[in-house]
Amino acid sequence: MYRLSTDVGGTFTDGVLLDEKTGKIRLSKVSSTPHNPAIGTIECIEKWNVPLRDASFLSHGTTVVINALIEGKGAKTALITTQGFRDVLEIGRSNRTEMYDALYAKPRPLVPRRLRLEVRERIDAEGRVVEPLREEDLDSLIDVLVREKVESVAVCLLNAYANPEHETAIGEFLGRRLPGVTVSLSHLITRRYYEFERTSTATQNAYVMPVVRLYLNQLEDDLRKRGFTQILQIMQSNGGVMAASVARDMPIAMVESGPAGGAIGAAQLAKFAGFANVISYDMGGTTAKTSIITGGLPETAEQYVVEGRPILLPVVDLREIGAGGGSIAWIDEAGAMHVGPQSAGAVPGPACYLRGGTEPTVTDANLQLGILDPDYFLGGEMKISKVHAHDAIKKVADHFDLSVDEAALGIVKIVNTNMSGLLQSMTVKRGYDPREFAMVAFGGAGPIHAAAIAKDLHIPTVIVPPYSGVFSAWGMLMADLRHDLGQTYIAPLRSADIGELNGTFASLEEKIREVFRKENIDKKQITMSYQLDLRYIGQEHTLAVGATCPVTETAKRGLAAAFDEMHLRVYGHNAPEEEKEIVSLKVIGIGSVNKPVLEKIQTGSKTPPADARMGERPVYVGSGRHQPFTIYRRERLLAQNVIDGPALIEEVTATTTVEPKQVCRVDDYGTLIVSIHEEER
Amino acid sequence: MKIDPVTLEVIRNRLIAASRDIRRTVEHAAYSPILYEVVDFSCGILDGDANLIAETPGLPIFLANLGYAVQSTYETIGRANLRPGDVILCNDPYNGGGTHCPDLVALCPAFHDGEILGWAAFRGHTVDMGGIYPGGWYSDTVEVFQEGFRLPPVKLLIEGKNNDDVFRLIRANTRVPDAVLGDVRAMVAAVRKGSQRFSEVIDRFGVKTTMAALAEMLAQGERLARAAVRRIPNGVYTADAILDGDGNDDAPLDEKLVLKLTITVNDDEMIADYTGTGPQSRGPMNTPEPSTISATRYAFKIVTTPHLPSNEGFFRALRIVIPDGSFLKPKFPAACAMWPTPSSTIPDLFLKALAPAIPDQVRGGYFGDSMANFLYGTDPKTKKYYVCAEADAGGYGGKPNEDGESALFSMTLGDTYNVPAEVAEIRYPWRVDRFELIQDSGGAGKFRGGLGVRREYRLGSDAGMTVTADRVLYTPPWGVFGGQPGKTNITVVRRNDGREERWRKISNLPLAKGEVVSFQGGGGGGYGNPLDRDPALVAADVANGYVSLEAARSDYGVVLDPDTLAVDRTATTTLRKKLGKAGDKR
To answer: Which of A409, A521, A553, B578 could cysteine-pair with A591, CB 3.0–4.6 Å?
Structure first.
């Protein structure tokens, strides 16, 4: 049997196939087919030429949702709201993210005002019906929806998080009267308060629903025609997968599926290598992305923003900055040097690509320094020019009266600082000490810079996975099913009614189990975890504290203490004497999928085999000095090999830097584990 | 010492990150919505001589006014009397604060070898620091002594240990001690973190290199600002506005406050001169000098370098002239609770003055006020006293190429978030009846002004209210290049007996359970002649309800079929001709 995953990206569709019997992995890469991404996906799978009836698991990540949102190519959507609140979507939070810009423009609502329809009804904050919903009021809405040829409808009523009965009634009514129109009810996506964010979420969900359904129908058809009998699993932003049947109703949950795959891959890889706490660091051509994994799970954020529009769903907490191989070094009007966020992208690309780019980029700098080998870029498949890199960097060098080498080193130092700033803010924000983390580096440029950044942040270990070029797809192969449900539940912790609290947990849990049943997940595979969002009474922001269910009166005291401790860790102070308040209850259901056994690589001795050693290359290290770095070919290394820095380990899609005094070990699976010495850190 | 460009950039990024850390700490650990939602704060890193080095955007009218607090600390406590681990707190508008009593400033010095090399600073609005009514924001005070408890710079922490006396003084002088002290704790944690980050930079790069980097950052800021000023044509540009004045509607103090601005652009320097601005008010609409400087710096940044992080160096290209004893430079003990109100108009006045010089970079006027409002009372459910301080949104002016934005907070506020109805209904004893755009509130123009917002609360218990809307009587949100003004701000109270009251400014107005308060932020002014607006856009506006059928006709000269909303081209051409002639005669 086989496990497969495919990850549709902007340029390429990546695939990873694992033979469950041998643990052998095969890769596949084809050009993406943006007009119909299902075609590229099928092509990617067909390259392996294996019968799909032998596939036991197929996970799929796709940009179809994010593209529809960014390009504005969703369905014609209407929104139904409580009377007096149709403008919530347009008013938003009234903030100005660019406060010094006189011509600032806020994100435009996805639904024009004439298609935002109000109904008479009202539920109060306690969930009591204050004004009943009347079906005759709904009749008049139908005319508008039909006349305007609306394809999809979002429904978000005030306080529906506390009592969804009116939303449900409208959903049933629309289902009856307009069976061809897709409907998204806000409470089915999230039971959290904050009406703008919930409305925005439901609206975006409705907006992409018809597009996604069409896409999944075709993909499932194509797969079935080729003998596939299992459930198609779709990668979600929260780092888990869901069945395609569930994704049809919750497409907004897959908005960040690609990057989430990378985070899951980092978590899984670290587990194989024996690390629980990891910073994932993915640096490509234009951006660097990072996320944090603790206890084997990526940390999630409660909301995500696409094109300025919030999505109130847990998402792997990814931070991104414009720092990639293509990032351009430039000089501002005042004569200060900067790198990025502008990028030369793939076209024209870095100057050394010979595609017409003339601006100096990070890749040019790495080539100039000797980190990259002009004759072994993409395994020698692509010709890059050291002369062009040199000439581009010279512009910056001359301005500052620096040598070209020194300017190149400066470009790399600046981009490294930008990235360590990003990583630091991720850890500091959560009160973590980077010294207690390992860093998993991937993406085309990640492994080059990882060692220097780790040194800067006192991170002791850098892990470079095999298959780092298709790492998100590899991660998707390892993903479990995951469903998050939260409910706003405001009560003082001390006096909260235990019965009611456990009842709410139980009902959330039951809803998740219902989804798992739909996905054919065996009870034994399911684990549930429970969290309470707590704060000091009077505060707004919360911290999530884990709990065991059912919660007891004694356990409450433990929760309070855990919250105090976490507050101290994250914010540097706490107030144990103050009363705490529960804001929401959350249940995370994991449907674990059997983890494949990976094939081990051949074991060697401490000394790498002679044919892996490709000689030496001088690398510029500053102060006018070059130092010889030993060059290794990664695919020829054996398990247990140890490489002392300075060294460069080259593979087709990446180069790993091992700086002087650092030591790199090859583990059983071919993963590179670089140790940064204490005195160095 | 000359610093190399790479080290400079590395240090710059670290200091910007340090000021971001200050913000993040406060935002998440704060108790008051005014800090975590309204973002009524500012934070930054300063050098030992009180120059702002790096700042994280918070409230834009707080821009670059943290230096004043550091200078006041030196003058009051003495530079030699400060020790590592000290944390300073102050709020006195005339000594260290520079704004009004509810704004607290926390400062933490970074020492190296016994010398102060830098500061981490935070200024934030607390819900209540005492004063005549709750909230610290009044329309009718006449002396600063009525406005709250004042702290000159004092040591809140002495060498790392809490100075309990000061904590007790604060606790005794605020109506909501838990919230205020919760915020103070968050502020202390934040500036200590910022100061530590600054010290880490010094440890890493050494004193000499760090100091050279700071000096070069300021020099670069100056160069950037001067280059930007040079892009504005030389000339003298003026604009003025008449503010409504203070006091209560039924008992006004000063009835008209004339705000006059003359901008001189002279190659790479800009002079902002407020000569001609009226004398200080008897009431609280006085902006202490440090805050007038901030508002002017904010305006300067908008018209020169809106997308660059700023530091003290930028403002070396700006000279500010403020007449002594005017309401922009009042004398102690003038009341100053409403200092932000004049500041709400200052930056917009810059855009109005410079419109002829940089027509592609300006827009019509905005609604011109923060629409600050305060509701307070005892929650019948919890039996606890609450103070709800909020702002309301309104419209911004039409732009050179598109309509103005609807429903944004005042220019004085920045990345400020409103309180969602669902949050308000949990937190306070009222129900939100509506939260919507106001039809026809945007000024007509080739590009229409954005719409104002109506937010209505139905009270579940008796409460007190203070509202202080300005720019209603004399200078509504102006249009530019032929655009029409937007609708003005107002608060409407619907009494239980059916009476309707309209308030601009009133302090401590009693309201009864069941009554409805409707806060209505005005609209933005139009850009360009409304008769030049594409009739299809007018038709779309009517379909969307932004503009009424009648206004389409009277303001835009566009005739629509009332059923299909199709444009009647012939009737429109005729009507527009007629309106155009009438306009010429006028």
So the answer is: A521
